[in-house]
Design a protein that fits this description.
D-Maltodextrin-Binding Protein, domain 2, five-stranded mixed sheet, 2 domains, 332 residues, globular, six-stranded mixed sheet
Amino acid sequence: MKIILVSIFIIMSLCVSSAIAQNLPKMRISVENSETHVQTQAVKRFSDELGKKLEGRIDVRFFSNASLFRDKDIIQALGQGKVEMAVPGTWHVTQFEPNVGVFLLPLFYGRTAESNHMIVDGNAGKTINGLIEKNLHLKVVGRWIDLGHAHLFSLTREIRRHEDIQGLIVRVAGGIGNNLRISALGGNPIEIAWPDLPEYMIQGRVDAVLTSYETVRSAKLWEKGIKFAFEDQEYFPQYIPLIKMSFWEKLPPDIRTIVSDTWDKHVDASRKKAAEAQMDAKKILIENGVKIIAPADQQVKEWRDRILHKQNDFIHTMGIDPKIVDMINDFF
């Protein structure tokens, strides 16, 4: 009899806990990348810690691998209240807030991670965050986290110099600036969502991929045909932590502080882990037969200077505020 009563008590406790959880405000956090990707792991660490800190107050749930939405659709999903938080790549946010695309301009071609951080963490970055919040009604929770430099990875043609890009069909994840830069370098850009890319590669419908070492490693793309890498530091992809503004404004002040502080606590470590992951991934690619060509710094600078002549066209086409570009030019 005692055992039966204990069992009933446990079952009732579980039911009560479940009911309480169902009544808690939900905070669904969405990312597109797979569980092994460095960005997914970074956001999950944040989500796990936040869930513990807000236990009993907010039901924090984490979704990876585009199980809720692909990043190209996530801004609309946030606006419609179908998800509360997401951490999309800058290249996806540019179509909704064009000024985010400033980091895709020729000015940033071949620049170091440190240069990118200096800009995004400085006044220009703060201005862009303010525009995101004003125009998209999304709260930028804190500093952006890194993926790491994107390079060109080819399947059929070894890219030894920039002239070898001529005529290649190059997959880009998104962002008008990426399309314009690839075109300026002589390639033919095509936007392909990450989950669809392996099929395109297997079918021979793409010659090269604009992505990072870590992203190639996470999906073992050498098994889908990647044979060469041209390490030209095309741009420095980052991810922006966004929360639906109406959800954010309903949160009590102490919870807002917990969310912001928990995010910020993880940024420096996430950026460091991203850099380490890129280096480790590069070694894994080499071990799996991918041949890497690193153009000389002077060669990259010469090509940056070439495509800089088209930067005003980029700015006009992308809808970027020239004043923000001026702020960045003062730095360089």
